[in-house]
Amino acid sequence: MELDILDPRADARYELVLDLRYRVLREPLGMARCQVTIAGELDALHVVATEGGAVVGTVLFDFATGRLRAMAVDPSRQRAGIGARLVRRLEEALALRGVREVTLHARADVIGFYEHLGYAIRGAPFVEIGLQHRTMGKALGGA
């Protein structure tokens, strides 16, 4: 498996990233394909996991909000460590860019995943896109 920084403006794999995010994050909620993109994501830092040319995982960091967003791993490859590797690679790239803290909105069913990676719950539960979420955060680089 390869982990790469992806430029959504120039990398043909970006469409495969959007397809994966739709299948994993939006389609199960009955949302339309056009609802997969996030405002400002062309300026975000994207990490993509590929195997044999197929996109098997993706995550992005939205600099405008300071949030990790749009984390998706192909269902056939979940629980194989891909998600953890994506997050760690993203954190490394962010630390090199001087980012000192990452926040995210975790769906209730993946809070344990993020806790295992050192993220802590911040604040009360809330509903986003019809699902229970918690805000979580983590300091990077020992800060």
Describe the structure.
This protein is α+β, with helices and mostly antiparallel strands and 143 residues long. It has a domain at 2-99: Aminopeptidase (3-Layer(aba) Sandwich), CATH 3.40.630.30. It is 24% helix and 37% strand. It has 3 helices and 7 strands; from the N terminus they run βαβββαβαββ. It has a 7-stranded mixed beta sheet, sandwiched between helices. The longest helix has 15 residues, at 82-96. The radius of gyration is 14 Å and the shape is globular.
Brief digest:
The protein has 143 residues and is an alpha+beta fold. The protein has 3 helices and 7 strands.
SSE order, as H and E? EHEEEHEHEE
Molecular shape = globular
Poorly predicted parts = none
Kindly report how far apart the N and C termini lie: 30 Å
What is the CATH third-level topology name of the domain at 2-99? Answer: Aminopeptidase
Name the CATH superfamily classification of the domain at 2-99.
Answer: Gcn5-related N-acetyltransferase (GNAT)
Content of β-strand: 35-45%
Specify the biggest β-sheet.
Answer: 7 strands, mixed
Q: Give the mean pLDDT.
A: 94
> What class, by secondary structure content?
alpha+beta
Main β-sheet, spatial strand arrangement: 1-2-3-4-5-7-6
**Estimated radius of gyration:** 14 Å
Proportion of helical residues? 10-25%
How many E strands? Answer: 7
| Count of helical regions | 3
The CATH class of the domain at 2-99, by name, is Alpha Beta
Specify the CATH architecture of the domain at 2-99: 3-Layer(aba) Sandwich
